[in-house]
Amino acid sequence: MDLILVNLIDGLVTGLLLFMLSAGLTLIFSMMGVLNFAHASFYMLGAYFAFQISLALGFWMGLLLAPLIVGVLGAGVERYGLRRVHQYGHVPELIFTFGLALLIEELVQFIWGKNQMPYAAPEILQFTAFSIAGNSIPAYKIFMIFISVAIFIGLLWVLTRTRVGMIIQAALTYPKTVEALGHNVPLIFMGVFGVGTALAGVAGVIAGPVLGTFPGMAFVLGSIVFVTIVIGGLGSLWGALVASLMIGWITTFSKAYNLRMEDLLTTLGFTKPEAIADSPWRDLWSITSPQIADILPYILMVLILIFRPYGLFGKRGV
Amino acid sequence: MRTSTTLGLAAALTLTVSAFAASADTIKIAFIDPLSGPFAGTGVNGLHQYEFAAEELVNKQGGVLDGDMFEIVAFDNKISPKESLIQLQVAIDQGIRYIAQGNSSGVASALTEAIEKHNRRNPDDRVLFLNYSAVDPALTNDKCNFWHFRFDANADIKMDALTDVIAGDDSIQKVYIIGQDYSFGKAVSSAAVRFLGEKRPDIEIVGNELHPIGKVKDFTPYSRKIVAAEADAIITGNWGADMLGLGKSVLENGYEGPIFTYYAAADGITAAFGETGEGSLRLVAEGQINPPANDRAAAYYEAFKAKYPDGNISQARITNVIEMLAKAINEAGTATDVVPVAYALAGMEHENMWGGKVMMREIDHQLIQDVHIHAHTGNDVTFDYDNSGFGIKVEETVTMAAADSATTCEMDRP
Q1: Within an 8 Å CB–CB cutoff, is residue A138 touching chain B?
Q2: Over its length of 318 residues, how does chain A's per-residue pLDDT go in tens digits?
Q3: Best to test chain A binding among B217, B226, B232 (most A CBs inside 10 Å)
Q4: How far, in Å, CA of B151 to CA of B140, rounded?
Q5: Residue A298: CB partners within 8 Å, gap ≥ 6?
Q6: Is the Cβ pair B227, A135 closer than 8 Å?
Q7: Is some CB atom of chain B closer than 8 A to the CB atom of A3?
C-alpha cells in the first residue's frame, strides 16, 4: 500500500516532466503542422546551458536564463530556418527539423564532449522531503512537481484568459482569417515556437540533474514525446497533460511490480508447455512487465490511433 | 569534377599510407575501438593511454630489438563487430601484426574468430590479438585460441573477488542483482548467483533483474524495488549512463548499503557521482591507482596528467600490454614472426607497474593478476578522476586472483 503511494508520486514526476516537453510540441504541431523532431534537442540544450550557467552563477540563475536562451534560439530557428523552408511544404520542414536534431547533438558533443556532465541539484534541495515506509522522496522531486504544475496553470491561463491566448487559439484553426483581421500571424508562430522550445528548455534544466546530462539525453526522450501528443490529441493542452500522466504512471507501475506474463496466461486458462526451452512461445511466456514497460506507451498509441484517431482530447485527426 | 578530385585525393592518400607501411621499421599496433559515436569517450581515452604507454615505456627507453619503435595506429570500429572486421583487414593489409581491442566482448569474439581464421590461412603474415578489456569469460574458455591474450581479469575472476568481500561481511544478508539486458549483464548475474551460492549459501538473493540497455530514462521504479526488498548490497555490471542513472537513483531514494560495480569510474561518472557516491560505491578492477603503489607509478601518472590534463588512467592494464609485448618481442628476437612472440608471452611473469606481479597463464592466455576492490571516495586520493577531487582507492586486494581456476580452453599450438 505504501509502495503504491510512492509509485504514484514517482509516476507523477515522470509524467509532469513529459508534459513540459509535450506541451510545447503539441502547440507547435497543431499550429504549424510540423512535427518538430528537434524538440527533444532543445530539452538537451536547456540542460547543457543550465549546467554551464550553474558553474558560474549557480543553479537558480541557470533555471532562469537557460530557458530564455533556448527560447530565443528556438524563435531564431523558426524565423530564419523553418519559415524559409515552409514554402516548400511539410516534408522539407520535417527533414529540416530532423537535420537540426542531428546537428544539435553533434554540436553538444563538440563543445561539451561525450562524457556525462556533473550537473547536480542545488545544495538547498538536496535533502529528503519525507519518506514513506523507508522510501525517501527527495525534495528536488517535490520542487519538480511544483515547477511543472505552475507552468501548466500559467499556460492554461495565458491560452484561455488573455487576449494573446485568444489570438493564438484563433490562429490555430483559422490562420487566414486572423491574418485578415490585421494580426501578424508569422510573429505569433515565431512566438509559439519560441515559448514551446523554452518549455522544453525548462524541462531540460530541471531534469538534467535527475536523469543525467549527456549527449544521448535527447534521443532517449525523443520518441516518447511524440507518442504523448498523439495519445493526448494534437493541440490540446489538457490532452498533453492527461497523456503524460498516463504514460508516467503506466511505465512506473509496470517497472515497479514484476507482473509476469506466465501468471497472466495461466489465469486466462492457458497451460505452460512442458518443454518451455524449445517452445516457440518461450519468449512470450517469460516476459515480465519491467521488460516491456517502455513499449507499453507505444502499444497505447497504436490502440488510440485505431479507435480514436484524433486522440483523447483532440479535435482533428493526425 | 569534384568527385574525381576526391577520388584522386583518396588514391594519393592510400598510396602515401601504404608507402609508409612498406618503408617503416616501426612496430605498429592497431588500436581498433570506437572513436566516434556514443562510446567514443571511452575509446579515445583508451587510445591516449596506449599512445602514452608506447611513448613512455618503450620508445623513450630506446625501443625494442635494435631500436625499433612502437607506433599505435588508430582504427575506428564504431563498436560494431562488422566494422571491426573491415578495420582488421585494413590493418593486416598495412602490414600490422598486433591488434589491440577492448570495448565490447561482442567485438572481441568477432575479432578472435577472424584472426584465428586469418592465421590458419596465411601462415606468412599472422597477427596477435591483445585484448585489454573485453571480459566475457568465453574468450579464454570455449572460444580461446593461441593468438588471443587477455590482459584484464575476466568477469568471473572479478565476481570471484567481489563475492569474497561480500562473503566476509556478515552484515550482508540480502543481495539485489541488477544489470543490462545483454550477454555481459547476464554473465555477471549468473556468476554472482553461482559464487554467492558457493560461498555464502545463507545470503538471500532478493532480486535478480535485467533492464533494457541504454533505454531507461528514469531508474526510480527499480530503486523503489531495491529499497522495498530491503537489500543490504547491490551487484551490478552496468556501465556508462546506465551505471550513473542507477547509482544516483538508488542513493537518492533512500538506499544506504554498498553498490558493488565493475565500471563506476572515470569518463565523467566519477565527477557526476561526486559526494553522493562516497561510502557506497565499490568497484572491482585491476590496477591500483590510489594510494600509488610505488614512485614509478606516481611519476607515470603525473606525466600522463601533464600531457592529457582532462584524461584519466582508467585502464591501468594498458601498461602491462605494452611492457609485456616489448619484453616478448625482445625475447623472441623478432617482431614480424608472431609465433615466437606468442610463445614468449604465454607463461610470462611480469612486474606490474601498479604493484604486484602478473602472470600470463599458459593454458588459456588469461592474465592472472591482483584484483582490487576500490572505494569511490574524496578522502586522500592522490590521483582523482575527471579532475573532480574524487577518485577510487584500494580497500581490499585479492592477490593473484583465481590463479588456479578451471578453464575449458583447449588451444591448438603451432
Answers
A1: yes
A2: 678 888 899 999 999 999 999 988 988 887 777 788 999 999 999 999 999 999 999 999 999 999 999 999 999 999 999 989 988 888 898 899 999 999 999 999 889 987 788 888 888 888 888 888 777 888 999 999 999 999 989 988 998 899 988 888 888 778 788 889 988 888 988 998 999 999 999 999 999 988 888 888 888 888 899 899 989 988 788 899 999 999 999 999 998 888 888 888 888 888 777 777 777 777 778 788 888 888 899 999 999 999 988 888 877 654
A3: B217
A4: 11
A5: A227
A6: yes
A7: yes
**pLDDT averages per 10-residue partition of chain B, 414 residues:** 48 46 71 84 90 95 91 92 95 95 91 95 94 92 94 93 90 94 86 93 92 83 90 91 88 90 88 88 92 93 93 93 96 93 95 93 94 92 91 92 89 89
Task: Sketch out chain A's domains with CATH numbers.
Answer: 2-257 (1.10.3470)
ipTM over 0.85: no
Of A13, A214, A258, the CB nearest to B241: A214
Q: Which residues of A touch B215 (CB under 8 A)?
A: 220, 294
DSSP string, B145-199: -TTEEE-SPPHHHHHHHHHHHHHT-TT--EEEEEEESSHHHHHHHHHHHHHHHHH
Longest dimension (CA), chain B: 75
Q: How far is A134 from chain B (nearest CA, A)?
A: 7
Mutating which of B205, B253, B275, B387 best tests the A interface, going by the most A Cβ atoms within 10 A? Answer: B253
Question: Is A207's Cβ below 8 Å from some Cβ in B?
Answer: no
Closest to B281 in 3D by CA, of B314, B241, B234, B221: B234
Instruction: Quote the CA–CA distance of A204 and A200 in Å, as a whole number.
Output: 6
Q: Do B254 and A134 touch (CB under 8 A)?
A: yes
Cβ B248–A212 below 8 Å, yes or no? yes
Digit-coded pLDDT (tens) for A236-278? 888 999 999 999 999 999 988 888 888 888 888 887 777 777 7
A with B: how many residue pairs have Cβ under 8 Å apart? 102
Whether B386 contacts chain A with CB within 8 A: yes
Crossing angle of the two packed helices A237-256 and A2-32, in degrees rounded to 10: 140
CA distances from A233 to A14, A153, A226, A238, A315 (A): 19, 19, 11, 9, 7
Q: How many residues does chain B have?
A: 414
Residue B107 touches chain A, beta carbons under 8 Å: no
Write the CA distances from B56 to B59, B66, B294, B357, B394, integer angstroms.
6, 17, 17, 20, 25
Is A182's Cβ below 8 Å from some Cβ in B? no
User: Chain A contact for B40, CB < 8 A?
Assistant: yes
Tens of pLDDT, residue by residue over A124-136, are 888 888 888 777 8
Rounded distance, CA A95 to CA A8, Å?
A: 38
- Tell if the CB–CB gap between A294 and B215 is shorter than 8 Å: yes
Contacts of B79 in chain A (CB under 8 A): none
Q: Which domains are present in chain B?
A: 2-134+317-352 (3.40.50.2300), 156-290+371-398 (3.40.50.2300)
In the numeric block, the cell 600509488 is attached to B292
Query: What pLDDT shows up at residue A1?
Result: 67
Q: How much is the pTM?
A: 0.80
Residue B249 CA, distance from chain mean position: 26
CB contact under 8 A, A212 and B215: no
How far apart (Å, rounded) are the C-alpha atoms in residues A194 and B310? 36
- A39-57 vs A2-32: helix crossing angle, rounded to 10: 110
pLDDT at B106 (0 to 100): 86
Cell numbers of B100, please?
589491440
For A4, which residue in chain B has the nearest alpha carbon? Answer: B224
- Sequence-distant (≥ 6) Cβ neighbours of residue B175 within 8 angstroms: B166, B192, B196, B203, B204, B205, B206, B231, B232, B233, B234, B235
User: Rounded distance, CA B63 to CA B54, Å?
Assistant: 9
